[in-house]
Specification:
By secondary structure, this protein is of the alpha/beta class. It contains 44 helices and 49 strands. Helix 22 runs parallel beside helix 26. The structure holds nicotinamide-adenine-dinucleotide and zinc ion. Zinc ion binds next to helix 11.
Length: 1292
């Protein structure tokens, strides 16, 4: 590629040894040969890079050195790519190779590659013959700006990364940006994380440059030539060069000042203390830079928690990382998908941090920021564990805090969301440039800004000012352009409503003539129809893409509002009105907006919109002749040069209410009586009558609460002008009490709209207040709360407060928690981020409330099942399937009572079943059956096994009941047997009313319902005699133990010195049954190779019914635990590799059958494995992988990578790896592998005759054959007896 950038030199440790430029190979070799002369150069690279770049290097080297008197040698060695090569083994083998090639003290080593090659080769250079000269040629962005600079070299050892290494400075570092042309996109982004990191703690200008050029960078990097795989960097060459040089300079400067990590050098580790902890868990699926991105956000949040950093700085950091495609949390969908939602338990993160090399003693050290580009101190700061825990945890515990009665606390809440969003929109619609101060930075703001940017509606620039960030908005006067990408608005109601009206201004462009507005799931349920109707009637083209009346909407560009008279139903949301008001000046004619359908809701928001429009130069007139009608002139907005967004008055209710409930004083300095916000009246209208002292000026509010516990109830208050504040008022009402004959409750009315907010807030408050022992109930348009007599009566919610993903719920209850005796858990504390990301930090730093991070063990493990523990069990199935006999056996075996629901019903209603059916018809019968089902579920929650009538699943309500029972982790077992047998049985049963339909049709109709309404399945084989029955009962016991979660099979097997499994390889297991006792003698588990069973006609795999039946047969004859295996073709079996749907059906069947072990091939897609994990209950999963090629070596990267994949997500109970031995040594390497991989029980063997030794050395569930079996399941398989004999011989 041609280049326009000059080659730059950067000095480090007093030498000009870093060279940055484009296409440096030739000049680099010249400089190496002349500047660091040697007879031997050793080039180390990896096998990804070698084919692309090595030939050019070798050729150029030859050309340049040919003319020399004694041309030096260039020896090249390549290693496997990836972290695995940073090992003792790789290092040793390269060293041996160098020695064999007579390398000496004056050989020069050249490391061409990413950080892996640089670190490992650098360490070789540091130790080879006590140290040889070396040159770094970084080829990844990360290596260019980070790992190649500073002289840190290292390898990984089993106990941790980078633990063995040396400081060894390279002679030169050649940063040739041309290498980036072949770098994969993800690796580029990974490197961007380090560049963003450096800018974030050091240089705000650089940070700004990164913010401003996101699109340029990403576009360049995504623009890859499909054939060559090369990206065209010409457009960003200059910028990239400046960026890399800038980043390198910072690192070089810091390293030069502190070469050996005395203190300053630690600042380079911003984001790394916590980032490394995540990396320890998430590697290798998540890359270093990605973990550092998550770490940066957590460390920035930590700075905020400690009162050092503003909300907006954290938001800015988060935004830029997201923009570059980096994750900012482990909940990022890509991270979850890549790691199978691997848990990152706080305890484990804390432990990982404890072994950080930076730590001084026990205290963890973190680089703290005070702003973008500003560090708190020029080193990492010691931080208490408690603070780090709070930042890492999802939930938070609020402890009762001793408060200073006379403390006066000043709090400035974040800017108002309503004002922010209006200001953004009005500024964008203006034909001027304005500076917006104190904007709220929230998801809503981001959505609004992104949408406006997407519509080319304005240009935004952040400026860091003294008092936080300021947004400069260059408006486009209402000229919007359609966009071909959907505009995603998350759950931002304001953005959705405002934009629905404003996008009607959009003009079509080359690639788009419509605009699609969409949102998340919840947003797609929130109403918008009245607004859409009004807009449609006024000439715009809007259609619904999914549900009628909700987002997503498609708006036709160029169909503008016509103006004139518009009628709008305004009793559901004032946002509709505001949306229309703001868009109206751009309609073709002046608009008259008439609000119909009764009193408009939230008039104050309408007034706010009108007042703000006036500040932006458009004056709306209220009609003098017509009620609730407004006249909007045509015009163009013109923003003032600066606009100050008032703090959010709803948010301000929390600090003010804090004063009220705790008896302290709080000042909110920028909201007073002149406020435009309805909630600004909270202090005067709510707190004052409750007994607080309130002092309000035009622009400030001060509240002092009465002594704790002495607030007075409000009796009845209409909070319609400040609906969002009702939650705050509710928690105060919870402790408000008046001594009178009859306790006086508080009734808050006028808040019906709160049912359609983030959640049904009225219902949520009633429920959560109840958890504090406060009685409350719903009113049609409000809530009634009976305050407790004394705050000491407040109870601690047992399982914590549920936040409903609603910031206001979480913040309100945090207030009540402060006065509740005993610690209160608030779940999902992060929901406050919607309007006040730093809320908890203010609570802690300003109000001195003691907080503690909390993590529920259940959240960590993901979906966790608890043993059934005596909970009643329901049995469903066809009449004649054996529900009564099976039910009896189940009850016996579990020590429970059995009850058939038919006789129960007969007794309850005093009529026989045939009588009921005759008199009430089937319909009536089903109704009574439902009554019975409900009754026993409620009355007998434990201790019973109930057999339901065969037709119970015919009613939808009954199906719902049964499904809910399963959902709540209850057990419903479907008992079934061969339909032919059922029919035979039924035809001889004359005591029951006969079916009206043909019996087969009945079965067909119900089959799916039975499946949907049960979580377990028992196949009742034809049990002909007492012996069969006895056997079956025995098996049933084992199966039930697995189903209810008390089975000890797995523990017992692991405890044994040796265990074995025998594989059944018959197309029909019936053939093995005569000898089954003998066959399985000595084996602990019996494997059923499902893929080898008789395939269904015209198919490649057996039918579900056949598999069901086969397992039924096995269980009739033997009680041995089963291993259910579906072996795919590539893994050496017969199951079609890509028949995911069938495989999943079979897996689900296995789980339903309560099989003890299920083999899951690691190579199945992640989504499929996830489904199995979610449904598995107590079945143990074996993560398996096979290599038949014999190409995978036990010390090679493939098995290592597979192992890491297999332990991902912690779902595997046993890992089973089967390789192929081509030499005796393969067994030894396997043993080494076994020694190094002990995270999970490991079953590792080699196939082939040569591999037989590995079968003797493996201890857990070694697969064995038996002389009676017709064929061996795998090459090299031997019998248990043979293994025991061999083990004896070798003294094992
Ligand atoms: N020494 C230090 O100060 C320091 C600092 C940070 C990170 N590190 C270490 O760096 C390592 C990570 O380095 P990395 O991110 O460069 O990973 P890497 O070396 O594994 O390279 C990433 C991938 O990109 C491929 N690749 C490299 N250059 C390429 C190119 N030009 N074209 C196509 N493919 C290319 C590699 O083969 C590899 O698959 C870690 O081991 C980490 O511990 C060290
Ligand atoms: Zn790093």
């Amino acid at each position: 590629m041609t280049t326009h950038v000059e080659t730059t030199r950067v000095s480090i440790l007093g030498k000009d040894s870093i060279v940055v430029g484009y296409g440096l190979i030739e000049s680099m070799i010249k400089e190496i040969v002349s500047g660091i002369p040697s007879s031997t150069y050793i080039l180390i690279t990896d096998t990804n890079i070698a084919p692309i770049h090595l030939p050019v290097f070798q050729k150029t080297f030859k050309e340049i050195t040919l003319s020399l008197e004694n041309p030096p040698r260039l020896l090249c060695q390549t290693v496997a790519p990836g972290e695995h090569s940073k090992s003792r083994k790789t290092k040793a083998s390269i060293e041996d190779w160098m020695l064999q090639n007579r390398c000496t003290r004056d050989s020069v080593l050249i490391a061409v590659g990413g950080g892996v090659i640089g670190d490992m080769a650098g360490f070789i250079a540091a130790t080879f013959m006590r140290g040889i000269k070396f040159v770094q040629v970084p080829t990844t962005l990360l290596a260019m700006v980070d790992s190649s600079i500073g002289g840190k070299t290292a390898i990984d050892v089993p106990l941790g990364k980078n633990l063995i290494g040396a400081f060894w400075q390279p002679q030169r570092i050649f940063v040739d940006l041309a290498f980036l042309e072949t770098l994969p996109e993800r690796e580029f982004i990974n490197g961007m994380a380090e560049i963003i990191k450096t800018a974030a703690f050091w240089d705000e200008n650089e940070f700004k440059r990164l913010e401003d050029n996101v699109d340029e960078f990403l576009t360049a990097f995504r623009n890859r030539n499909a054939e060559t795989g090369i990206v065209d960097l010409s457009l960003i060459q200059t910028m990239l060069h400046a960026l890399v040089v800038g980043s390198i300079k910072v690192k070089a400067h810091v390293v030069s000042a502190d070469e050996r990590e005395g203190g300053l050098r630690n600042i380079l580790n911003f984001g790394h203390t916590i980032g490394h902890a995540y990396e320890a868990i998430l590697t290798p699926q998540i890359l270093h830079g990605e973990c550092v991105a998550i770490g940066m956000i957590k460390e920035a949040e930590l700075s905020r928690y400690l009162g050092l950093l503003s909300d907006s700085a954290v938001a800015r950091l988060s935004k830029i990382l997201t923009a570059y495609g980096l994750p900012v949390s482990v909940n990022d969908p890509v991270v979850r998908q890549r790691t199978n939602s691997r848990a990152t338990p706080v305890d484990q993160l804390m432990r990982a941090m404890a072994i950080d090399k930076k730590n001084a003693g026990a205290q963890k050290k973190v680089v703290l920021l005070t702003g973008i580009g500003k560090i708190y101190e020029p080193k990492a700061t010691g931080v208490a564990d408690d603070a780090i825990r709070v930042v890492l945890s999802r939930d938070i515990i609020i402890k009762l805090t001793a408060l200073e009665r006379y403390a006066k606390i000043e709090v400035t809440p974040p800017g108002s969301k309503s004002i922010t969003n209006r200001a953004l929109l009005l500024a964008a619609l203006s034909n001027t440039t304005t500076k917006l101060h104190n904007l709220l930075r929230s998801d809503d703001t981001e959505h609004m800004m992104n949408a406006i940017t997407q519509l080319s509606g304005a240009e935004f620039t952040w400026i860091t000012g003294e008092a936080g960030d300021i947004l400069e908005v260059k408006g486009k006067g209402g000229q919007l352009v359609a966009s071909s990408d959907d505009i995603y608005l998350g759950n931002s109601g304001t953005s959705a409503r405002f934009l629905a009206a404003v996008v009607t201004l959009a003009e079509p462009c080359e690639n788009a003539d419509t605009v699609v507005l969409t949102g998340n799931k919840r947003m797609k349920e929130r109403p918008i129809a009245p607004l859409v109707n009004a807009l449609r009637e006024n000439g715009s083209g809007i259609e619904y893409l999914e549900s009628v009346g909700c987002l997503p909407l498609r708006v036709t560009a160029g169909m503008h509002l016509s103006g004139g008279r518009v009628e709008l139903a305004a009793s559901i949301s004032s946002q509709y009105v505001s949306a229309l008001l703001m868009a109206a000046p751009y309609a073709e004619d002046p608009t008259v907006l008439a609000l119909v359908g009764g009193k408009p809701i939230s008039q104050s928001y309408i007034d706010m919109t009108i007042a703000m429009m006036a500040s932006f130069g458009v004056h709306v007139k209220k009609s003098t002749t017509e009620e609730n009608t407004y006249e909007i002139p045509k015009g163009v907005y013109s923003a003032p040069p600066a606009y100050y967004v008032e703090s959010d008055a709803s948010s301000a209710t929390y600090p003010l209410a804090f004063a009220a409930i705790t008896g302290t004083t709080c000042v909110v300095p920028n909201i007073g009586s002149s406020s435009l916000q309805g909630d600004a009246k909270f202090a005067v209208d709510v707190l004052l009558p409750m007994g607080c002292e309130v002092v309000q000026t035009a622009t400030s509010t001060t509240v002092t609460g009465p002594a704790p516990g002495s607030l007075r109830p409000l009796k009845r208050v209409d909070m319609e002008p400040m609906t969002d504040a009702f939650l705050t008022a509710s928690v105060l009402a919870a402790v408000a009490h008046e001594n009178s004959e009859k306790p006086i409750p508080t009734q808050i009315v006028g808040i019906a709209n709160q049912r359609v907010k983030e959640c049904d807030r009225i219902a949520a408050m009633v429920k959560e207040l109840g958890k504090f022992g406060v009685f409350a109930c719903e009113l049609p348009d409000g809530i009634e709360i009976h305050g407790v007599e004394s705050i000491r009566d407040l109870t601690v919610p047992k399982d914590g407060v549920h936040s409903y993903d609603d910031h206001r719920v979480a913040m309100s209850f945090s207030l009540l928690s402060v006065v509740t005796e005993g610690p209160v858990l608030i779940k999902d504390r992060r929901c406050v981020e919607k309007t006040w990301p730093g809320f908890w930090d203010v609570l802690n730093a300003k109000f001195k409330v003691a907080l503690e991070g909390f993590e529920d063990a259940n959240d960590v493990i993901g979906k966790k099942f608890v043993p059934n523990n005596g909970r009643s069990i329901f049995i469903i199935g066809m009449r004649g399937a054996g529900k009564t006999s099976c039910g009896g056996w189940i009850a016996d075996s579990l020590g429970m009572k059995f009850q058939d629901l038919d006789p129960y019903m007969e007794e309850k209603f005093g009529r026989t079943i045939p009588q009921i059916v005759r008199e009430d018809k089937w319909e009536g019968f089903r109704k009574l059956e439902l009554v019975v089902l409900k009754e026993v579920m409620e009355k007998y929650p434990s201790g019973y096994v109930f057999a339901c009538g065969g037709g119970v699943v015919e009613s939808l309500e009954a199906r719902n009941l049964l499904q809910a029972y399963i959902e709540s982790a209850g057990i419903v077992i479907h008992v079934h047997r061969d339909v032919k047998l059922i029919m035979e049985y039924l035809s001889v049963d004359v005591t029951r009313p006969s079916y009206v339909d043909d019996m087969f049709a009945v079965w067909q109709r119900r089959e799916q319902w039975f499946a949907d309404c049960s979580n377990f399945f028992i196949y009742n084989s034809d049990l002909s005699d007492e012996k069969d029955v006895a056997h079956f009962k025995l098996t049933l016991r084992g199966v039930l133990e697995t189903m209810i979660g008390v089975s000890k099979v797995h523990e017992k097997i692991l405890a044994k010195p040796r265990s074995f499994f025998l594989s059944l390889t018959y197309p029909d297991v019936q053939d093995a049954m005569p000898d089954i006792e003998e066959l399985t003698a000595g084996s602990d588990v019996l494997e059923l190779r499902v893929d080898l069973l008789q395939p269904a006609p015209h198919e490649q795999s057996p039918s579900l019914a056949y598999v069901q039946e086969q397992i039924g047969i096995i269980r009739k004859y033997t009680a041995i635990p089963l291993l259910f295996t579906i072996r795919t073709v590539t893994q050496g079996g017969k199951f079609p590799d890509h028949d995911y749907a069938k495989a999943l059906d079979l897996y689900m069947l296995a789980l339903k059958l309560g099989i003890e072990y299920v083999d899951v091939e690691v190579s199945w897609p992640n989504w499929m494995i996830q489904k199995i994990i979610d449904a598995r209950r107590f079945t143990k999963l074996i993560a398996s992988n096979h290599d038949f090629s014999g190409k995978w070596k036990w010390d090679g990267p493939e098995w290592q990578a597979k192992y890491e994949e297999a332990i991902t997500g912690e779902w595997a109970d046993i890992i089973k790896f089967v390789g192929f031995a081509t030499s005796r040594m393969d067994n030894i390497y396997l043993e080494e592998f076994r020694d190094l991989h002990k995270t999970k029980p490991f079953l590792g063997i080699n196939m082939g005759k040569t591999g037989q030794l590995s079968r003797v050395l493996n201890k857990i569930l070694t697969p064995v054959t038996h002389p009676l079996l017709p064929v061996k399941a795998a090459p090299g398989q031997i019998s248990a007896e043979e293994i025991l004999a061999a083990a004896e011989l070798i003294g094992e």
